[in-house]
Amino acid sequence: MGQTMSEPVTVKATACCENSNFKVGSSCMQRWRVNMEDFHTHILSMPNDPNTAFFGVFDGHGGGKIAEYVGKHLHKYVTNQREYSEGNIPEAMRKGFLEIDDAMALEESLTRERSGTTAITVIVKNNQIYCANVGDSRAVASIGGKAVPLSNDHKPNKKEEHDRITAAGGWVEYDRVNGNLALSRALGDYIYKKNPNKKAEEQIVSALPDVTEYTMNEDWEFIVLACDGIWDVMGNQEVVDYIREEIAEGLEPEKICENIMMRCLAPDLQMAGLGCDNMTVLIIGLLHNEPFEQLKIKCSGVTNNTECEGTNQVIETKEDIIDEPE
C-alpha cells in the first residue's frame, strides 16, 4: 500500500464544470498516504474536436509523475492518431496508450522514474461512449438506475493476464506481479517492460488498454470514474444507488464525490489497506440537452433494468477544462 501517516489528510481538491451535455463534478483526497499520486482530467470540448469530451482518472503508484504526465497529455496522443480522424476511435485509443507509454520512456524528465499509473478514460462523441482502461481503476454507468460496468479490472490472477505475465518471464505471487504490483496493466512501470523478445503489449505489464463501446440513449443518467480505493470498499450498484439518491436529494456532483470518499475513508490502519489509499472520484452527469433538474427527476424514479447496447492542473487554455492539484 505504500508509506502511511499517523492521521489521514482529508482536505479535498474539488472541481466542477458543465455545458448543455454534461454536469461534471470531481474530487480527490490524499487520505492516509504520505503523498498524493492521483491525477484526473475532464475536458468538455476537445481542442481539436470541439464536439467531443474526454474524461480520465489516473491512479499513480510509486510516485505521481507518470500519472500527472498521462493526465496532461494522453488525450492528445489519442486524437493525433490517423485512426481517430477516420472515425476508428477504439483503435486510436489503443494506439494512443501504447504511443504515450513509449514516449514517456524517452522523456528526459521521466527517464529515472520508477512509478506507473492506471488509466481509466472515457470519450463521448456523437452519442457514442468509448472507454479505454489499463489497471484497476473503473468506469461504471447508471442506465435507468442499473449499474453497468464499462471497463474490466486488470488483475494478475485473471487467466489472460497471468498467461501473459508468465510468458514474458514474470510470475504471480500473492495475486501480485512478481509479488509486488497489484495490477497487471499500467502506463509506466518500465521495470516490467524489459523483455526484448516481446512486443509492448506482450510485456509482463502491458500498456495496451481494453476498449469498450456503447451507444448512449436517454436512459443513461451518469458515468462515474474512480480509482480502486472506491471500488475496494463499495460495489458497482452500491455506488450507483448512492449517487442517484444524492442527486435526487439535490446535491451537486462534486459534493457527492466528496461524500463518497468520506464514506470509503478507513477510520484507522487496521483494515488491510482498504480505505487508506489516495482516492479520486469523477461523476459525469449526462444531461441530454436538458437541465440538471431533469436528471434529478430521473434519479428519483424507479429503476429500469433494461439492457444497454454495447460492444466489447490545466491541460489547455479553455474555460471548461479544470485544473488539478499538484
How does this structure look, described?
The protein is of the alpha+beta class and 326 residues long. It has one domain: 4-Layer Sandwich (Phosphatase 2c, domain 1), CATH 3.60.40.10. Helices cover 26% and strands 30% of the residues. The chain is built from eight helices and 16 strands. It has helices spanning 65-79, 82-85, 89-106, 159-167, 228-231, 236-248, 253-264, 292-300, and strands spanning 4-18, 22-33, 38-43, 52-61, 116-117, 119-125, 128-134, 138-143, 146-149, 172-173, 176-177, 187-188, 210-215, 220-226, 279-286, 310-311. Strands 3, 4, 5, 6, 7, 12, 13 and 16 form an eight-stranded antiparallel β-sheet that branches. It has a six-stranded antiparallel β-sheet with strand order 1-2-15-14-8-9. A two-stranded antiparallel ribbon has the order 10-11. Strand 10 and strand 11 form a beta hairpin. Helix 6 crosses helix 8. It is globular and about 55 Å long. Mean pLDDT is 86; it is low at 304-326.
Tell me the Rg in angstroms. 19 Å
* Binned strand content: 25-35%
Kindly report the CATH topology.
Phosphatase 2c, domain 1
pLDDT averaged over residues: 86
Helix and strand sequence = EEEEHHHEEEEEHEEEEEHHHEHE
Please give the domain count.
1
| Secondary structure tally: strands | 16
